[in-house]
Amino acid sequence: MRPFALAVFALFFGFVFLHANQSQEKKSMNVKRITPVLLVREIEPLVPFWVDRLGFTKTIEVPDGNKIGFVTFQKGAAEVMYQTYTSVEKDAPPSMSAEARKGPTYLYMEVDDFDATLAAMKNAKIVMPVRTAFYGMKEFAVQDPGGHFITFAQQVAPPQH
Question: Could you give the domains of the chain?
Answer without folding.
Answer: 1-101 (3.30.1900.10), 104-161 (3.30.720.110)
